[in-house]
Specification:
Helix content: over 70%
Mean pLDDT: 95
Low-confidence stretches: none
Shape: elongated
Structural class: mainly alpha
Number of strands: 0
Number of helices: 2
Number of domains: 1
Length: 64
């Protein structure tokens, strides 16, 4: 799942940047800056190979 998350986090930052004007109007510049910083840090962690993703599936056993 790491490849999927790497792509997703890049797309999230790109989309966030495209919507900057609307987001600043709603949340103000300071909040936008903090969120942008957070999203970019997560993107960098995946891009640099310092964070990975996985998928876990758990099933509850059927009662006998």
């Amino acid at each position: 799942m790491t490849g999927n998350w790497k792509k997703y986090t890049q797309e999230r930052v790109d989309e966030f940047d495209r919507n900057k004007d609307a987001l600043v109007q709603i949340h103000r510049q300071d909040t936008y800056n903090r969120l942008r910083y957070f999203y970019n840090v997560v993107r960098e962690l995946y891009a640099d190979g310092n964070l990975g993703g996985g998928k876990f599936i758990a099933r509850k056993p059927l009662k006998a």
